[in-house]
Amino acid sequence: MLKEEMKKIWRPGILAVLILLGFVYYTMYLEFYIQYFPNGPEYKGIYQVAADWVKRFGTTLEPEEEAEAAREIPALESEASGYLSVNPVARQYGLASYEEYEQFYNRSVQRMQGEMTTQERDRYADAMILSNYLTGEETDNIDGRIYATRLFTQMYELWEQEGVNFRNKEFMDGYTQREYTHAADSFFGEDHAWRNILPAELPEAFSTYLGYVLIWVCVSCCLLLSPMPVRDRMRSMRPLQWSSRHGRDILRTQFAASMLSGAALTAINLLVFGGLFMTHGIHTFFGCRMFSFMHTGFSWINPTFGAWCLLLVFLIYLTGMGITAIAFFLSLHSTNYVAMLLKLIPLVILTALLCPRLLIRLFYYGNSLYQLTSIPGIEGYTALLILATGLILFMITSHRQKRQELLL
């Protein structure tokens, strides 16, 4: 019986619609994160340097390793100078070193204000040509790598000297006493957890990406599962089902088929869309922990990045299964497809509003649900609440169906 109910859900027409809508959704909301991560030469340089440090030094950067990385800055600048020496635009302006290029770029781009003369516009255009050259594939983004190495060796030395800066009142005002105490105890104790290597854009971009994936997971589950109960009701199948040997347990079977189908569809979505993001080589950072001196921000927990990814997947499953159960309940109480869609629209809207907030910066101080409620772990509680709501609605429906008259 379960197999038959599954066949009623996985219909070729619905699957074709899901594939088409999934492609459209990917193009509109997900493709950006696949094509443009890391986003911009500076972030690309940060990602390159962080990945290189993990491969060379491991998941943490010790003081002697930071000193070694800092000593490499002149070599990187020398490499950039070599690229400039063969560039015709740089030779036109007599730029023989990376330091001279930086001075030229600052004068021609960053310090320019107001209306520019023809000569200033030409210098601006040439400075941008040089910038694109030094951040392009031909030079392996040497400018971005210099920027990242300078930035993070400076940040490392600052954290080494100051730790959590208790003397900075502005810094103190940014956190509650509970948050501040947790950060000081968790990351700046004797184990020096702040020395972990993890580029801040990775958890930010990946959790945002999965937040949008979760919206599609919920929407696709609703579209796949909802027609089945409505179709049975429109064809007056319920009295026949109740009078069969299986009896009123058919509702449990249909619910089980719906939940299994939702779990399978969620797995397919995660394999497809998660696999696309994995092409960025994020597995390099699976052993790194979630708080890093690389501007990640403070987190309530500090698992490895790999374990944090599993937590994201777990919350996607909890939320997806909860939305699946709620959609089954709404569809079961719809007399036709129009009524079903009218009931699903508010659910889809609430899902679209909630899902990104649920996953973006999961368990970090910066998560929007935490900032709204000030409850650590609110993301997990919210996902469990969604699942519990769906299961409770099913149990109420199941109880009422057993007491219903056969001809109703």
Proportion of strand residues? under 5%
Overall pLDDT:
88
Low-pLDDT runs of 5+ residues are none
Number of helices: 19
The largest sheet, given as strand count, sense and whether it forms a barrel, is: none
Percent range of helical residues: over 70%
Q: Which secondary-structure class do the elements indicate? A: mainly alpha
* Helix and strand run: HHHHHHHHHHHHHHHHHHH
How far apart lie the N and C ends?
A: 23 Å
**What does the overall shape look like?**
elongated
Radius of gyration: 28 Å
Total E-strand runs: 0
Keywords: Membrane, Transmembrane, Transmembrane helix
Transmembrane segments: 12-34, 209-230, 255-285, 305-332, 344-366, 378-396
Provide a descriptive summary of the structure in words:
The chain crosses the membrane at residues 12-34, 209-230, 255-285, 305-332, 344-366, 378-396. With 408 residues, this protein is an all-alpha fold. It has 19 helices and no strands. Helix 1 packs across helix 15 (250-278), helix 2 (12-35) runs antiparallel to helix 12 and helix 4 (63-71) packs antiparallel against helix 9.
